[in-house]
Design a protein that fits this description.
Layout: H1 5-10, E1 18-21, E2 26-30, E3 36-44, E4 47-56, H2 61-76, H3 81-92, H4 98-109, H5 115-133, H6 143-155, H7 159-178, H8 208-219, H9 225-237, H10 241-245, E5 252-253, E6 258-261, E7 272-275, H11 278-291, H12 312-319, H13 331-342, H14 347-353, H15 361-366, H16 372-390
Antiparallel strand pairs: 1-2, 2-3, 3-4, 5-6, 6-7
Helix pairs in contact: 4-5, 4-7, 5-6, 5-7, 6-7, 9-11, 9-13
Protein name: Integrase arm-type DNA-binding domain-containing protein
Family: Belongs to the 'phage' integrase family.
Domain Tyr recombinase: 201-379
Amino acid sequence: MPLTVKTIEKAKSKDKLYRIADAQGLCLEVPPNGSKRWRFRYRFGGKAKMVSLGVWPDVKLPEARDKRDDMRRLLKRGVDPAEHKKSQQAIAEGKDRFEAVAREWFDKFHKNWAEQTGVRKMARLEGHVFPLIGDISIEKVDAPQIRRVLLRLESLGKLHTGHRVKNIIGEVMRYAVAMGLVTHNPVPDLAGVLPPVKEEHRASITDPEGMKGLLCAIDEYQGSPVTRNAMKLAALTFVRPGELRHGEWSEIDFEKKEWRIAAGKMKMKRQHIVPLSRQSIAVLKDMELVTGHGRYIFPSERSRDRAMSNNTVNAALRRMGYTKEEMTGHGFRAMASTNLNEMGFHPDQIERQLAHVEGNKVRAAYNHAEYLPERKKMMQVWADYLDTLRDGGKVIPLKRESNGG
């Protein structure tokens, strides 16, 4: 039976909170303290929910019903009234600015990313986005506003960064849509605003004579022994530079001779197993004497609590006389891939060791076995081959082998 003013006035507090229903989800809530509050009860996404509509007698019965009808209209449009109310409060408090929403999004999701992923995303927001649109209400961040950000980066010759920034803004806007702050994400409308990034050749040394010279130069490197060993392990394991720099002692199993890198650190978000050759174990044992008491295998020179800088290996290569067109830290991967393919190892084994994800779901399920026995053999053969080159063995074209592929 619908409420009346007389019924509301006669409602007394009790030991426990109770509610008196009006109609179509509206009810009066009476807690033990004697106050009387309007509530709208509804279901959204299959869940029972409730939103406050004010306090009686500040909000009279007709006004409460009007507010209830507004909530019902939101539901018909597929909008959650509770989230809508939050968004309106955010606007009233100035929390709807793009920067505020982006930081809220970051705080909510960054724990799911690799540490460096979060650092890079926030750095791009703070460096390229917030100065231009950070103070704008998220409702007013439209395609032209975002285009201005992206075209500025293109004009500065930062096309790759532009594409990254576009993706980040898209993630923030999708979050804003989900939270009811906006009804449309304009980023997909900007699909053609930036030209595609041309794939750059990863500078690498892949010929045996060049590899021999590089390995000898690493052995003779006069800089930090931590950097020298980082380059040695990069050549032996050919993990990505970020995975190398952020390698932790807790990931190394000397008994099993494995380095297990957690999924959160990997580009493809899958745990990666690196079989460790005798030579890799020797490098790690050498490093254990220096950094084994800390977290990182290759810590920063400035702080043992931080990973090695992302420019350390490249800077060492430059000091050794290699230009960025000749060799980079990432180039150790191409060096191994090219030569292992020439040695006749199965491409799937090589790709798995490079931590490339198989797109075909059936093959991906098969690859769950990791090709681990085959990869252990392959990594030892690779390490032995590098020894042969460095130690002055005759440099000859690599011989193809049959590896059960």
